[in-house]
Each structure stands twice: as C-alpha cells, then as structure tokens.
Amino acid sequence: MKRFCLILIMILGFQTAATVNAQQTPQLGKSSVEELVAAMTLHEKATFLAGVFDYGKNPDGTTRKRVPGAAGSSAEIPRLGIPFAYYPDGPQGVRIQPTRKGTDKTFYCTAFPIATMMAGTWNPDLVSEVGAAMGNETLEYGNDILLAPAMNIHRNPLCGRNFEYYSEDPFLAGKTAAAAIRGIQSQGVGTSLKHFAVNNQETFRLKNDARVSDRALREIYLKGFEIAVKEGKPWTIMSSYNTINGTTASENRALLTDVLRNEWGFEGFVMTDWTSYPRNTAAQIKAGNDQLMPGLKVQVEQIEQAVAEGTLSMADVDLAVTRMLRVLVKSPSYKGYNFSNNPDLVAHAALARKAADEGVVLLKNAWNTLPLKDTGKKIALFGFGSYKIYQGGTGSGNVHTTGIVNIDTALREAGFELQEDLAATYDGVRIDFKIGEKLAKLRAADCDLAIFTIRRNAGEGADRREIKGDFYLTENEEASLKNVSEAFHAAGKKVIVLLNTGGVIETASWKQYADAIVLPWQPGVEAGHAVVDILTGRVNPSGKLTMTWPVAYKDIPSSKNFPSNFEAKKDGVRTPFDPEKRNEGFTEYEEGIWVGYRYFSTYGVPVSFPFGFGLSYTTFDYSKPVVKAGKKGSYTASVTVTNTGSVPGKEVVQLYIAAPKDNLEKPARELKGYAKTRELAPGESQTVTISFDTYGLASFDEAQNAWVTDAGEYTANFASSVEDIRQSASFKVKKPAVLKLKATLR
Ligand code: BGC
Description:
Layout lengths: L1 H23 L8 H7 L2 H8 L22 E3 L10 E3 L27 H5 L4 H17 L4 E2 L23 H16 L4 E7 L12 E3 L2 H8 L1 H10 L3 E4 L3 E2 L2 E2 L4 H11 L5 E4 L8 H7 L9 H13 L4 H15 L3 H4 L9 H15 L1 E5 L12 E5 L24 H7 L3 E2 L1 H10 L7 H10 L2 E7 L19 H16 L3 E7 L15 E4 L7 H10 L12 E2 L18 E2 L2 E2 L11 E3 L8 H7 L3 E3 L10 E3 L3 E4 L4 E10 L8 E7 L11 E7 L8 E9 H4 L1 E3 L4 E4 L2 E10 L2 E10 L3 E4 L6
Parallel strand pairs: 3-4, 4-6, 5-7, 5-19, 6-9, 11-12, 11-13, 13-14, 14-15
Antiparallel strand pairs: 1-2, 7-8, 10-15, 16-20, 17-18, 21-23, 22-23, 23-26, 24-25, 24-29, 27-28, 28-31, 29-30
Helix pairs in contact: 3-11, 3-12, 5-6, 5-14, 6-8, 14-19, 15-19, 17-18
Bound molecules: beta-D-glucopyranose (BGC).
C-alpha cells in the first residue's frame, strides 16, 4: 500500500510538473508576442530571422513546403505553435507552381495587367480592386504575404524590370502603390513593398552602387515609398540588393530605421531581397533589416556568433523577432485559416479584362481610324505577337496563368475575318519574317485593313538594350511595316500598329507608317479581349502614359549613366563584375532630379509621346478652375470636365504645379494630384476636386537637410498630359514652410 501510494504521488507529481511545464511554454494564439519572444532560445530566434533555407523532407520524400513555387517563407517553431508563413511573388499576380506531384488539380493564378499598365489606368479604386483579387488568390492558395507591389522609379526606359514598376513619377508611383497595398491587405494577407531603394537597373544588381544626391533621393527615389508607406501601411518592406552611396541597402540604418521607421512611421518588418549573403548579417539586423531572405544556415550561425561575441545585442535580435511576430500574428497561417485552393479565377479574369480595358493607351488615331466601325471587316494580321501575345514580363514578376486570350482569337470571336493564309504562315514559322512588297500588295488587295503587332519582352536579371530588336525595330520589322503601310495606303486602306511591350520603345522614326497606334502593354490573361474592346470602341480608351516616350534614347538624361549596351555574356562567359567600372560597380545619378518629364518639360526637349498622354474617342472641355486655401496649409483644386464629343468616355485630370523660382532649381511643373472622372455621357459634366498641401509642394534643400516650401505665387495647371495644359489658376503660399529632418542619408 505504501509503495502504491508512493508511485501514485510520483505519477501525480510528474503529471503536475509536466502540466506546469506545458503551461509555461507559451503558445501562439494563447500567449502574447512578448511571451513568445521571451520563451525563444537564441537558436530559435536566429532561425526565425533567417528565412527557410531547408523545408526538410517528409518520410515519403515529399517536401514539407505547403505552397510549391512560393518564393520563400518564415521558419516554423513547432514548440511554440508557430507555423510557416508563405511569401509568393509578385506584382502582376500570385506566382506559385501551377501543378503539383500526385494530383491533377491545378493551381493557376490570374495574370493581371503588368504594374506599369495598372498605373496607366490612373484609377486608384481599380488598382485596389485588382489588389483585392490578388490578395484573395494569395489567401486562398494558402499564402500570407504577397511580394508586391514593386515601385522603383522608371529612371531609364531600359531597366529590365520597369514593367513591374509604375512610373517615372514618384507621386503617381506612390499613390498607385498605396492603392495596391490597401487592396491586397483588405483580404487579411500582407504585402512586401519593394525594392527599397534605388534599385533602378538589373545589371550587377547585387553589387551596383547607386551614387545619388540627397535631393534626388528624397524627391525622386524615396518620395514614392514615403507616400506608399504612409498611405498604404504595408505589412513589410523588401530592402533592395544594391548599394546606395556606399552602403548596402539592407545594412543601411539611416534608410531602414531613421527614415523608414522614425520619420515615416513604418510599423511592419523589413525583409531582404533574395540574396542577403554574403552580407554583414549583424549589420543588417542592427540597421533594422529584420528578416534575411531566402535564408541560409550560415546566417543563423552568424547571428548566434555575433551575439556571443557581443557585436550584436540580444536587444536588437529581440526587436527584429518582435517586429516579425507582431506582423505575422495577423497572417492567415498563424490564425489557422482554412484556405480553399480554389479562388474564383473566372471572376478574376473578368476583372483583369476590366483593368486592361482602362490601361490601354491610344497613342495615335489619325483620320478617326479607330474605333473600327464594321466588325465584318477582313483583316491582314501581321506580326507574331498578334498570334502569341506577351501577357507579362519574365522572372519573378511573371505569373503562371492559364487561358491567355490572343489577339487573333479575340478578333475572330468579335466577328472579324482574318486573312487565313497569313495566319497560317505565322502559325507555321512562329517568328517574325519580312513582309516583302509583293506580299504586302497581295494582302492590301484582299483585306480591308492591316493590323501589325510589335512585341517586346524583358525581365528580372538583365536590362534591355539600345539595339534593334529591343529599343529599336528590327530591320525586318521596319521594312515590313513600311511595305505594309505603302501597299495599304496605296489601296486607300488603314494600318493599325499594336505595341505589345512591357516598356518604352523608339517610335519617332516609324510612327508615320501607322494611321493608329494602340499600346496594350502586356495586358495579362485577357489580353486579346482588351485589345479588341479598344479597337471596336466597346471601350473608349482612357489609359495614359506613366512615362515619357522620348524621340531618341540619347535624349534621356540618364542614358549617359546606364548600362544600355552591356553584354552580360560574351562567348557564353559571364562578364566578371568590375567594381571600378561605371554602370557596373557604380552608377552616377548625374541627372539628379531631372528624371522623365521633369527634364523634358523644363528644358523644352521634344518627345515622341509625353508623360500623361493618351487619346480618347471623345473630347473633353475643362472649365475655369478654382483653387482654395484651407486650414493648416491645405488646398483644394477643382475643375469641371465636360464630355464634348459624341461617345461616352473617362478623362484623367492631371494637376501639375509650378512653384515660384527661389533658391533651388525647380522643374517647370510637377504632378501633385490627379483624378479620373466616371464615364461621362456626351454632354455630361463632372466636377473633380483634388487636394494637396504645402508639404507636398516642398523641394528638398540639401544645405538645410529640410523640405522647403517657398512662399510666393504658384500655378496650378489642369492638364490632359504634361504638355497639354487646359486650364490654370494661381494661388499664393503666404509663409515659407521649412521642415528640418533629423535623419541624414549619409
Ligand atoms: C527579386 C524579388 C523577388 C524575390 C523572390 C528576387 O530576386 O528581386 O523581386 O520578390 O527574388 O522571388
């Protein structure tokens, strides 16, 4: 009996200890973030700060990764009930592997129009709507943070990733990014605003040092991020690969802590871009870069070692872990969300079409060539892109989408007849061949009009080049277009050119060959439908350019300092990195703030198509505007827009403000607001009101390390493009405003 009692006491005692022990181990969902952090060992913390470098294998050999194709994830800590959280790319929609071993089920996602085209809608509500659909696919495929939006500045048209970015203008880029973030995050998943910062070229992107003035940093390269952070509140930010004025972005405390957090109030966590090694791991964490992606074992070891040696404090480690956990406790994986793997792809395709419809830009429309009045027409459809469109760019920004609608299919569906011999030839050769004079005449004789598609693609890891076949037309393309144009015009028939490209190409030398030029960019999964919607006038174009299309490449100020003819591979061998070489080891941002229209408009340099430009099938009249001063340096600017044409349409009212000349050099005018009207019926009017404030009007004065708004008379220009000012009104800023900053960027 005695023995029995003893055993009972021992069992009870053991159970109590075990229970107490279990109760003492904090658990996600039951314990606070502080309790979880306090319970973590240094090894767990270090593991958590590195992304997952090894998902481990299940006994059957399958990986434990729940979402194949997601670019990365955070680490799990089963002891504390902390699961993996998944991070898929990217800006055009969710990028995951579309098929999986052992199942017939597919996991395709919707390719929405590329980011540049989304910005070109100038419609933040639509950007948010698309963002919400992307967020929904992120959620329903079992993910947590979408690695988007991307918003580096189109400093130069040849940056290979411009299609993932919004604009040459930071205000437009920032507003668009904020709208995208709001939409994506409305679904309970996070975003990672990238690539912070000054990641404007792909050539040697891991090492290139962007040498840029503080003024250009503040006004051009950081301004958009500032707007997006303040207005969008992204869960995370992705620090960029490159170096800025000698300090690697992910090790840059001034950037990641002083500016991002202390000045702008960012409350999420920072993750590196996908190569955080070799970098100084301790310096990254001290700088305020919380997570190291995609994560390596050596980084875990380095964190442990740095703490042991005292070069990294436990307080810094804890801060980074805390920041990550505070965000991730909101994530679907941490909340145990029961995802469906079944988002509504049909509804999202319809939304992709609606978005593409608003982003197509009509660049030329001589003699009212468009819209095509009669769908019964017979079309000579030239260019391989007419049969196989690029729906998006390449690299991590590309989406595995299904059911891409090509232009030929959509034209047939709409009731057009295609010249079948020509269609069959393209189907047979699957490349662009030269259309000789004879063939052009033959087709001009048996068709009613010609449509000629020029397509271009680019993407991550390489910049575009100033060569034929990229920035310029190939010899074949040029000769073909000329022959088609001459033959069709001789027969009294029209030629329409479609530009299926993710970025700017040279147009000035050949645009006379076309009666109409339509720019559908890379429009996503519903590509062909969007093109035909515009061609037929089912949709009246309302997209506007978000960057300048120059006459010549050399007209662009940054062309002197951009690796536009860099040979990544010579005889199959990759050129070694040369730290001393211009545009490889470093890039001088000599042009300062003179990026895009700020340069062209101020210096009166002619362009092929200006920033903000895009034609409509109707016309709009702008009334006399009113600018009113409100409280605390706020202003409202109103103008009434009337549709004076004969078909319904939307107009983008752009507000460019000209500041008085004072100490600092200033652009002739800068975009400080915009508003898109609803679809106005012929004769219908809408008053749009745009708000701005003195802080938004400020220029950055390096001498004072301050944002300075000069007193004096300003002009508010209401415009349909930066070169098409319709109405102006002046207003006065009575007192100068100076906002001195604590943080300096070097
Ligand atoms: C790209 C990021 C991307 C990441 C994960 C990097 O190489 O620069 O934009 O999110 O890979 O795929």
